[in-house]
Amino acid sequence: MKFTETRLKGAFLVEFEPVGDERGYFARSWCEGEFREHGLDSALVQCNISFNKAAGTLRGMHYQVAPHAEAKLVRCTQGAIYDVVVDLRPESATYCAWVAFELTAKTHRMVFVPAGCAHGFQTLEHDSEVFYQMSAAYHAPSAQGVRWNDPAFAITWPRADPILSERDAAFPDFKR
After folding, report:
1. Maximum alpha-carbon separation in the chain
2. What is the three-class DSSP state of 64?
3. Buried b (16+ CB within 10 A) or exposed e, 81-116
4. Looking at residue 75, what is its pLDDT?
5. Is residue 176 over pLDDT 90?
6. Annotated catalytic sites, by residue?
7. Model pLDDT, residue 42
8. Residue (of 152, 101, 123, 144) closest to 53 by Cα position
């Protein structure tokens, strides 16, 4: 696997290194040792799938607070998404900064989201599916969010008129 650190410390773009032949290819998508060698949380306790019928669906920006903070490895397994990570770690040099990547089923790229960062995505195609590997189990009382269009972050989204859940649309303004 190829690990490329983003401008947010601890957030990585992770790419397969497929070995192919006439049958197709084989590639590793997870290796505890390789993640640990890059200083990444290599715990894996839960996997989730998000299926999204319509292009323009936006899910986020979600995170969990300590002691249930979670790192995520996110991959688009069908369709395409615009994936966003926001640094919410007050001690970080990139506090409140964000990065975004296009993830598709064809490119097989993944994003590693460190604990303390919010994560969300907007679908670019109908019938997009997202696969998450999590370092902590979902804990409803610790689940938090920041609004997708909060001016504190000024995230540039592909579509300004997303399909949102009531919960995601109602997150309050972020206070630094």
Report:
1. 54
2. strand
3. bbbbbbbbbeebebebebbbbebbeeebbbbbbbbb
4. 98
5. no
6. 62, 132
7. 85
8. 123
Name the residue type at position 120.
Answer: G
* Type of residue numbered 147: R
Half-sphere exposure of 81 (CA within 13 A, CB side): 33
Mean pLDDT throughout 79-96?
98
Instruction: Pull the structure tokens for residue 117.
Output: 């960062």
* Full-model pTM: 0.95
Residue 120 CA to residue 100 CA, distance in Å, equals: 10
- For residue 49, pLDDT over 90 is answered with yes
Residue 138, pLDDT > 90, answer yes
Sheet containing 2-5: order of strands: 2-5, 12-15, 110-113, 72-78, 128-134, 46-52
Structure tokens at 141: 């009382």
**Angle, CA 5 vertex, CA 140 and CA 144 arms, to 5°:** 15
Burial class from Cβ neighbours inside 10 Å (0-12, 13-18, 19+) for residue 75 reads buried
The predicted-structure confidence for 51-67, as pLDDT tens digits, reads as follows 999 999 999 999 999 99
Rg (CA), the chain: 16
CB 16 within 8 Å of CB 108: yes
Alpha-carbon distance 78 to 127, whole Å? 7
